Amino acid sequence: METTFNIQDNANTLLTRNEVADFLGISLVTLHNHNKKGILKPTHKIGRKPLYQLSVVMKTIQLSTQNSYQ
């Protein structure tokens, strides 16, 4: 499943764990590990369901990319 987002229009969009994992091309286990290490933490919770804000996910990707080039 390929997910496409218009970042400017949907910066406040909340994504589920599955959507974030698909978007980043990682497994749910890797996403869980990123959460535990503080790399990418959920920004909201509805009940027990963790949700990630799209703009935060994109910012984390940008920071990760910048750090890998330095």
Description of the structure:
This protein is an alpha+beta fold. The protein has one domain (14-69): Multidrug-efflux Transporter Regulator, Chain: A, Domain 2. It is 49% helix and 14% strand. Strands 1-3-2 form a three-stranded antiparallel beta sheet. The model has no long low-confidence stretch (mean pLDDT 87).
Helix-strand blueprint:
Layout: E1 14-15, H1 17-24, H2 28-37, E2 44-46, E3 49-53, H3 54-69
| Strand residues, percent | 5-15%
Give me the CATH fold name: Multidrug-efflux Transporter Regulator, Chain: A, Domain 2
What is the subunit arrangement here?
single chain
Low-confidence stretches: none
Indicate the percent of residues in helices: 40-55%
What is the CATH class designation?
Mainly Alpha
Helix and strand run: EHHEEH
Number of individual domains: 1
The assigned CATH architecture is Orthogonal Bundle
- CA distance, first residue to last residue: 33 Å
Note the overall shape.
Answer: globular
Number of beta strands: 3
Question: How many whole angstroms does the radius of gyration measure?
Answer: 12 Å
- The helix-and-strand class reads alpha+beta
Strand order across the largest sheet: 1-3-2
How confident overall, as mean pLDDT? Answer: 87
Report the biggest beta sheet as strand number plus sense, adding barrel if it closes.
Answer: 3 strands, antiparallel
Determine the number of helices (DSSP H or I, runs of at least 4 residues): 3
